[in-house]
Amino acid sequence: MTSKLAPKASFYLGFLLLLNVFNFAHRQMPGSLGFQIETGLGISHAQLGLLIGFAFIAVYSVAGMLFGTVADRWSRPRLIALGLTLWAAATVLSGLSQSFLQIALLRLLVGTGAAVLTPTALGMLADVYPPEKRAFASGVYYGGIPLGAGLSLIVVALLEPALGWRACFFVAGAAGLLMVPFMLFLKDPPRGGAAAAAAPPAGQPTAARRSTAEVLGEIVSVARRSPALVASLFGSVIVLWPISASVLAMTWLQVERGFTMTQAGLFSGAFFLVGGFLGNIVCGWLSDVCHRRWRGGRLWFLALAQLVIGPPALAWFALPKDSVWFYVVWFIGCFAATGYFGPIFATVQDLVPARVRSTMVGVLLLLVNIFATGLAPWVAGSIGDATSLTRGLVICGLVGFLSVPFFVFAARRYATDVARLDG
Q1: How many whole angstroms separate alpha carbon 291 and alpha carbon 419?
Q2: Which SS3 state, helix, strand or coil, does residue 355 take?
Q3: How far apart, in whole angstroms, are the C-alpha atoms of residue 28 and residue 272?
């Protein structure tokens, strides 16, 4: 049996997708301009990896979890508007940086503001979409990754040669600030969707009256009783290692493959824009199909996707750039880079109560951002400084295959743990 969509569900999805486009356009800037920033500020591959990774993630990951608990208790549109103002303004100021330290500190501010969006937005989408369509909705929302990053790459490829890398930060930040007034007019949907009118379980305080410690305590309690949730978290962190390291690909293309800034940006932007967005939609839809047909279907899908898509994505680093297959597997890698997010976030939200979904997304982001998004670029960059970026990116790509046993285990436990949650 399927459930009906909440009123204006498609509007919420479209508007939050647009915000995520701005989010990832801003996040992508140091990756898009990696070689130019290295040259302009005199920094190494490892420092660029830190700038893209931990300089952004250090605050983003912790703030995302904390803002998730706030989103479970406060006006979500106003919270997003506040975060958008901060990250857009910090992006503008990043164009004025004169040293690694200055731009790193501003990336901390960008991370603080951006941390608001995803836990809050996915909580809102879970309230307007029924369980059997949440991976699709999450996948569309995460279409902001290829759309935002792809547009960033294309715009930078055209703008930077004419105006310089600093102007790219000015333009991106100003565009984000223009979105703030529109966010303030968005209404907050009822929490829990169709079940919002139901009374909370006996002895359970309403979300608005619960403290952050109580919300986080419930997450810990659920995790102790749910091996599927714990394994899903481990698998999610590991499978995102190749994707996280690939933010250095623009630098790799210019330094080790001989592409110009414009060539690398236009090809990367076009492939990521089209392939990445298709990956979000197709993988979100396919994982929902698997979810309806098999117990733990989304998790089975994640394991199979890594085994099928991982090898051709790795082949990109070995092929010569004058081979047509170089561009074919480049497109496949872009398709795969975003396809995991919808199934991952839908799964972890299924495995916790509705009242703590935003917090659960924040916890997952904390783990992913520290141990994948933050760590992988630094590891790949450090290996690149010692040997080559090719070797660093391949090693990080191989790590992704270690996620398969975790997803298989979680899939086998999924039905049992969901039944225990409902009980």
Answers
A1: 15
A2: helix
A3: 12
pLDDT in tens, 351-380: 887 777 777 877 887 888 889 988 899 999
Residue 68's pLDDT is 66
| Phi–psi pair at 317, nearest 5 degrees | -75, -15
Q: Give the mean pLDDT of 189-216.
A: 56
Question: Among 8, 419, 1, 422, which residue's Cα sits nearest to residue 193?
Answer: 8
Check if the beta carbon of residue 405 is closer than 8 Å to that of residue 69.
no
Q: Write the CB contacts of 294 (distance below 8 Å, at least 6 apart in sequence).
A: 300
Distance CA 403, CA 408 (A): 9
C-alpha 295/C-alpha 287 separation (Å) is 12
Q: Which two tokens stand for residue 390?
A: 């090719």
* Closest residue by Cα to residue 14 from 158, 101, 141: 141
- By CB neighbour count within 10 A (0-12 exposed, 13-18 middle, 19+ buried), where does 326 fall? middle
Classify the phi-psi angles of 4: left when phi > 0, otherwise alpha if psi is within -120 to 50, otherwise beta.
beta
The SS3 assignment for 72 reads coil
> Is-contact 82 180, C-beta < 8 A?
no
Please report, to the nearest 10 degrees, the dihedral formed by the alpha carbons of residues 391, 397, 402, 408 taken in order.
-160
How far apart CA 254 and CA 156 sit, in angstroms, is: 14
Q: Return the pLDDT at 33.
A: 87
Burial of 156 (0-12, 13-18, 19+ CB in 10 A): buried
The pTM is what? 0.73
The mean pLDDT of the chain is 83
Measure the N-to-C terminal CA separation of the chain; round to a whole number of Å: 20
What does the block give as tokens for 1? 């049996």
Question: Are 240 and 340 spatial neighbours (Cβ–Cβ below 8 Å)?
Answer: yes
